[in-house]
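Re: the request from the purification team.
They wanted to know what the chain is likely to look like in 3D before they choose a buffer screen. I agreed to run a prediction and write the result into the notebook, where they can find it.
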Amino acid sequence: MLPYRLSLIGLGIFAVLTAISILFQAKGISFLLNQAIFEQTELADLSTAFRWLILILAVRGLAQFFYQLTANRLGSRIVNKIRVESLKIILPLMVVRDGSLTTGGASTLFTDKLDALKTYYAQYLAQLILAAVIPLLVLFVIFPLDWITALVFLLTAPLIPLFMILIGTQTKKATEYRWGYLSRLADHFADHIRGMEVLKQFNQSQNGLDAIERVSTRYAKMTMEILKVTFISALALELLTTLSTAVVAVEIGLRLLASRLDFETAFFILLIAPEFYLPLRLLGLRFHAGIQGRTAAIELFELLNDETSTNADDLSNTQSPDLQPPFHLTVNQVSFSYIDEEREILTDISLELAPKTLTALIGRSGSGKSTLAKLLLRFLQPQSGSILMNNLPIEAIPLNRWYEWVSWMGQKTFYTEGTIRETLLFANPKATEADLSDVLDRVYLLEKTNRLAIGLDTLMEEFGQNFSGGEIQRLQLARVLISPAPILILDEPTSQLDPDLERLFIQELAKLKQKKTILLIAHRLQTVMQADQILVLEKGRVQEQGTHANLMALQGRYAQMVATYHQLR
């Protein structure tokens, strides 16, 4: 808090220095002209006054420079602090929220909208301080010199804030709608990017691009409508300040002609009049930035104050429950359905994941296997039933702690941008060079890595173009194997492996389950036959459960799947 307070004090000091230098600048110019024209003073005798004027101009320039520098740095520090702290709170919650904060919404919130908040601090708030300090100091000096001009200042200056309020009422709702539309535009764009592969497969990529262009054009038109109001209001403010300055010039000129005011005082007031209105006019020009910044701040703080965010924040700030391995997971009569689905995806699912065991989930596509994995990963929340870890509801465990204990490998290959080393250290930052070599050997990538010119420091190209699909998946498996998390969830880990590598991976699983609790989702029955328990899901329910031998003895659905599997081999 102290650095921010020092910055605000610095802004106040530089604002006062700017105001004082403006007054002395006007006084110096009026003094020099009066001496040179009316007093007939030689220019050589005015050299000292000229030097003082140059010094005053330098002080004003430096004060304004450091004022804006301090304002920019203050805005950057505040917004960066808000961005970092908000990300710590909100991003972990995106996996448990009801969809009110989408990927596109989050991207615009933490980029464009927080940039608008930075502009609010660095420009609008900074100009607000100048608009308060400079006119007050000018009035303080002008009142003893000429109360009539001071009265004109007092009567005309409030018109500028009045115009700003009128502008705000006209553009506030439009700005809020524009920000909301920007979030929807980002979501629309993100959805098309994620679905581009599918669009290309069905030759619909151009239609997708046309749709993005349409919504982008609408957003541009919306922005131009707001800017049109802003430009018109800027013109009105220019006219208002010009007319106000003209009123001051006329009343001073009339009194100067009537010899009721001396030239030096009259010229000083005439020079100071534009400086009096300038901060107010600039505040009006930056009022639009203030509206955008306030709108972004309101949206962010409302999100942070949301009940879900508050509850999860409380959980993340509490101490982790006293849970120690081995961990025992229990799924107790869990049901779940998506909002847009008429039927339940999962119905009364119950199962036990005992420590150091391998549990396999099999079933047709759409039977709920991946949904159950998402529930265990806390990407979703069950609508009924409970999931317990060592008899403690998993909702009571902070998310950051939960993801230290649970490791996951999804169906789609994912890797971080960077080198092979960085990709592996992403899962276990404490891994040694020997650990990295060992895990690469276990997934049969060590030989390839050793052949590379710079080995583990080889940069993975975009989309992994310098690796095959199978090699990327093996690299992902290596990252899972090197993770210290005691619970491992695998969703189709062998989908891109050839049969030989698949058999070797099954052997690796047998070693791995001696250390970890593993949940395996698979279509290839060869992968699941050695599991400690197999669950057959059918239409969201556990139809059969047991070991391979027990299920074969039942001669039910699992036995039919195995018979079909052997026929197709």
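For the purification team: The chain has two domains: 2-314, 329-568.
Please add any questions underneath this entry.
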